[in-house]
């Protein structure tokens, strides 16, 4: 069994050929990707299979979904040992208004936010918008 198969099984995800391919694709990316990016990379694959794979990965803490304000959900692999908990694993995302890429800034954590009594956070997303390092050079 290879490393990816073991990782998926450890996350309680059956390592099918398509899931392994999508994981490898995401691992090679330095930016968050949209479902259409994955569809374009796997043109012969069924769109529903690709979407279900992303949802399975998201439900099992393998990827996280990013709402970068473009109206298109993006996906990126979670950090090692991430469990996508609001209290521990939140980080900044940066969306470049020039190249339209969104990246995870995992080393920049979102501080804990104290909500008023009676409020329960279900998701937190902090996106900084501007010009990325690549475009500003």
For the structure shown, list the relevant keywords:
Arc Repressor Mutant, subunit A; 137 residues
Summarize the structure.
The protein is of the alpha+beta class and 137 residues long. The protein has helices spanning 3-10, 17-28, 35-41, 47-59, 133-136; strands spanning 33-34, 63-66, 74-77, 91-96, 102-109, 127-130.
Descriptive notes:
- The protein has 137 residues and is of the alpha+beta class.
- The protein has a single domain (3-136), classed as Winged helix-like DNA-binding domain superfamily/Winged helix DNA-binding domain (Arc Repressor Mutant, subunit A, Orthogonal Bundle), CATH 1.10.10.
- Helices cover 32% and strands 20% of the residues.
- The protein has 5 helices and 6 strands; from the N terminus they run H-H-E-H-H-E-E-E-E-E-H.
- The protein has helices at residues 3-10, 17-28, 35-41, 47-59, 133-136, and strands spanning 33-34, 63-66, 74-77, 91-96, 102-109, 127-130.
- The strands form 2 sheets. It has a 3-stranded antiparallel sheet. Strands 5-4-6 form a 3-stranded mixed sheet, with no helix packed on it.
- The protein is globular and about 45 Å long.
- The model has no long low-confidence stretch (mean pLDDT 89).
CATH hierarchy: architecture? Orthogonal Bundle
CATH structural class: Mainly Alpha
Please give the largest β-sheet: 3 strands, antiparallel
Task: Tell me the fraction of residues in β-strands, as a range.
Answer: 15-25%
Task: Give the strand line-up of the largest sheet.
Answer: 1-3-2
First and last CA, distance: 43 Å
Uncertain ranges = none
Summed up, the domain count is: 1
Q: Helicity level, as a percent range?
A: 25-40%
Number of helices: 5
The helix/strand order is: HHEHHEEEEEH
The CATH H-level homologous superfamily: Winged helix-like DNA-binding domain superfamily/Winged helix DNA-binding domain
Gyration radius, rounded: 16 Å
Tell me the total number of β-strands.
Answer: 6
> What characteristic shape results from the CA principal axes?
globular
If you average the pLDDT, what whole number results?
A: 89
Give the class from helix and strand content and strand pairing.
alpha+beta
